[in-house]
Amino acid sequence: MIAPRDLLIIWGDTPDYWDWISHPESRFKEVAELNHVWWLEICGKISTSKLSLDTNYAAYLVFKLREAAFGFDYYPAEVSLTLGVDKICAKSVVLDPVNEMRPRYGPQVVDHSVMSSPERSKEGADGWLEIELGDFFNRYGEDELEMSVMEVNTSFPKGGLVIQGVEIRPKEDK
Known about the structure:
This protein is mostly beta strands.
């Protein structure tokens, strides 16, 4: 897993927007906790030479949403994977898994034509949420894999997101 300190989190070093805190359930010393932003952008990189050859992989953003999280329930984020110079995956996802117990903040009107059934996050066995950013086949192990999560198109604030990191793991065949 790529630790949150090894990710490029826009405004990540600005305490008004992000805090770096310890979390008892994290495998890292610190996690990044979003206070309040309008522009969400998280990027990461890893050399595929660190991964097994001839293997299908998937990349996942691993995170939690605080009870009072806002801005992640209706409006999709854009996620992508780039392998070398080729963008191999780009899609819209919704980070909130639709927890009806969480209070909703902000507008409740959704333009469903923009959101044609985006994928939603799911809870993993460890209790953290995860959303697949995309998958790829590591044939030669000679490229750099870049991952991104962005929500920069709406004017709605976001907060309460806790980032543990980005996990790259072999993709299970279905």
